[in-house]
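Sequence in, structure out. Go.
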Amino acid sequence: MKKPALHWQILIAIILAALAGQWSGTQSAVLGVTFYDIYSFIGTLFLNALKMIIVPLIMASIICGISGIGASDNLGRLGLKTLSFYVLSSLLAILTGLLLVNILTPGIIDGQAAGEQLNLSSPDAVAGQLARVEGRGAGDITEVFLRMVPVNVVSAAANGQMLGLIFFSLLFGFFMTRIQGQYSETLVNLWHGIFETMMAITLWVMKFAPIGVFGLVAKTVAATGFAAFQPLLVFFVTVVSALAIHTFLTLPLLLKTIARVHPGRHYKAMFPAMLTAFSTASSSATLPLTIECIEKNAKVSNQVSSFVLPLGATVNMDGTALYECVAAMFIAQAYGLDLNFTTQFSIVLVALLTSIGVAGIPAASLVAITVILGVIGLPLEGIGLLLVTDRVLDMMRTSVNIFSDSCCAVVVAKTEGEEQVLA
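Output:
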């Protein structure tokens, strides 16, 4: 009998967890151990596995991606245009998500922080940690940039100071291709080997996602009943609305104003790739079809597509960056925090940087969210809640990632004088 796809396994796990949590509550026990403690153990074990892979996965992903740019002969004009578009589109996506999450406030229900409904630790239990988040002022923006240059990169990695680790990885990946050939080749092979190994470990960990989701959801339902689903529904609507605005308003405007092409033609050209991205939730797996659609349907030259699209599948994650921003704000709101400009600026900056290092595989953005929460100082327990809606949102944001990559290819091709593009 064929094993169901991962997203179906997770969906079944959520349903079973809701039933199990409602049935057991917090007091039912077997052999002297409460079911609630069993659920908590399963969920915590899965979250620990996610945390375990953060540092090597992020480092290897960023170093490999940046080394690929640095080694390219097209790093000049073509590379500058590509990277400029990717930074612009990702920044616009993050700001869209930040605007909507501040308007819809999914972490606040009926004027009250939803932390209790979501079974998060009480504010008193994490008061010191939350005080550090809320206590930052506008003058602390300089501190954000100072943390980008760690005194000791090993210590930064050990203490979860990911901003400095990301910056170091960007530098290492770029200069790795600037040294003598034999040493450069050795390092490139080493880091690609590490990246492939970490991808394999990540995929292995995600095989246990249904079990982890079961524990996390059952624990929440056991403690709060079905009250947790109201803020999660608002969170889901917030993310979907932000993704829709970016896909159907922001990116078409960039196509229209910069490339002077009709967005409707581009939607038609890229529909097969977007549909495949939605079904696989993997930008890397969709890359061959993305290239085929952009070359055959949109008439972009192979010279542009072969550079822009593989690079985009590595470093351009509009939908993922948007989601990371909304998720971090949602968890902060659920704790009752009124985040000031400095902390929200940190979220935007880290979401932009970590989107570069997100592997193009399903649910990899959960790893990046742990980075953001760690940087701004929020407890990581809220990540478990995101797993309830993550699979569907993962499919949606992957489609947005693919569409953004293709928009960049069209814009670069048009600015390079390719008149046949979407003509």
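Check: The CA atoms of residues 192 and 393 lie 29 Å apart. Residues 6-415 form a domain with the Proton glutamate symport protein fold (CATH 1.10.3860).
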